[in-house]
Design brief:
Distance between the termini: 61 Å
Low-confidence stretches: 196-209
Shape: globular
Number of helices: 16
Mean pLDDT: 81
Order of helices and strands: HHHHHHHHHHHHHHHH
Largest sheet: none
Strand content: under 5%
Number of strands: 0
Structural class: mainly alpha
Length: 386
């Protein structure tokens, strides 16, 4: 943490987080890049060492990468207050956007033009998720045979069961941890680190309050505790609960919810606000967002003071590598599950394929622009038929 007097005020950092949350398209990798460019290189508010430590912690702990890094950077000079206000400022703009889109979706979702828009958008989103899964796989798994085995098993299980098994994700981390760091070697503080991951899940599991808002909160708290590897890692878990277990949304509504997250700035997991709104209105959106981002916040501010000392232990790094491989496997399996719901004819198959080709060949085309084009194509195709 910085020990000198900061060259910026907390108000300035909050305003920057609000701006980035309002116009920051491109996903987590782009967002963390913007923070480095703006806060480290241009304004020199944050030192490069503090930035790198924050990025490492965000990659190690569960939670949406960009949101967690923003929280950590708020903590560097302004501690708990800074982390809290900067985190809220970063998430708030996209939350407001998805709530407004949720209101419009409920109001006009039955209209032909709205169905036509999401007909094209949903197919394009499948292409985006597929390409993201490919990039994450290549970048993360590498040539490690153990990570490949965990990845393949998790992809198959997710595709077959149409749900994400949390215990398998954790098991992937434990297996890699013990293979690369045998138990007869001393691994101090590992048990405490692992128990940190279990706290939100345990709290949610023992809760039995019957109200819908409490069910939403506890479910999304579990989801927020397992967003490893990428914000997209939450998609298969949400599908298993929101569609298969609780039946809050149908398949089409869920894919539309993912699409909404793709066309808005900020973290991908903000889709939880849209889902919460469809389930229980504005209170549902607030509770879903709180449940999702609270674990992310806690996993940042609690270990932050101790991260310099313990964060780079081999056992902890091995555990996170195993969990990340399993999470990316779940994303890959989710491509198959969601693709079956959205790729329903030749035009949607072509839209998904064209999206993948554009992302592969034309790397500078922003995803929201591709989705906007898919929306226009879907509108044209459906109105032509009608």
């Amino acid at each position: 943490m910085s020990e000198t007097k900061p060259s910026y005020t907390l108000r300035q950092l909050i305003l920057y987080a609000l701006k980035l949350g309002s116009v920051g398209f491109g996903g987590p990798v782009a967002l963390v890049g913007y923070m480095f460019r703006d806060l480290v290189e241009k304004r020199k508010w944050i030192s490069e060492s503090d930035y790198k430590e924050g990025l490492t912690l965000a990659q190690l702990a569960p939670g949406p990468l960009a949101a967690q890094l923003a929280i950590y950077l708020g903590y560097v000079d302004y501690h708990i207050l800074g982390a809290t206000l900067v985190g809220i400022a970063f998430v708030l703009p996209s939350f407001i956007m998805v709530v407004c889109l949720g209101w419009l979706y409920k109001l006009y979702g039955g209209l032909d033009w709205m169905r036509a828009v999401f007909y094209g958008v949903s197919a394009s989103v499948i292409g985006i998720i597929a390409f993201s899964a490919y990039k994450l796989t290549v970048k993360t798994i590498g040539k490690n045979w153990l990570l490949w085995a965990i990845y393949i098993v998790m992809a198959i299980v997710t595709a077959v069961t149409e749900s994400e098994k949390i215990w398998l994700i954790l098991l992937g981390g434990v297996i890699v941890c013990f293979v690369e760091n045998p138990p007869f070697k001393k691994q101090p503080n590992l048990l405490g680190f692992l128990s940190l991951f279990a706290m939100p899940v345990t709290a949610a599991a023992v809760s039995s309050h019957p109200t819908i808002l409490w069910k939403i909160f506890t479910f999304f708290a579990k989801a927020g505790a397992f967003v490893f590897g990428s914000g997209l890692a939450i998609v298969p878990f949400l599908y298993g609960g929101v569609v298969k277990e609780y039946h809050w949304l149908n398949d089409r509504q869920f894919v539309d919810a993912v699409a909404v997250a793709m066309i808005t700035p900020g973290p991908v997991v903000i889709t939880v606000g849209f889902i919460g709104y469809l389930v229980a209105g504005f209170p549902g959106a607030c509770v879903a967002a709180l449940g999702t981002f609270l674990p992310c916040y806690l996993f940042t501010v609690i270990p932050a003071p101790y991260f310099k000392k313990y964060g780079k232990r081999p056992a902890i790094l091995s555990f996170v590598n195993g969990v990340t491989a399993a999470a990316i496997g779940a994303i890959t399996g989710a491509v198959f599950v969601l693709g079956r719901k959205s790729i329903i004819d030749i035009p949607t198959a072509l839209l998904a394929l064209i999206t993948v080709i554009l992302l592969w060949k034309a790397k500078k085309i922003p995803e929201p622009l591709i989705i906007f084009g898919a929306a226009l194509i879907g509108l044209a195709l459906k109105l032509r038929v009608s």
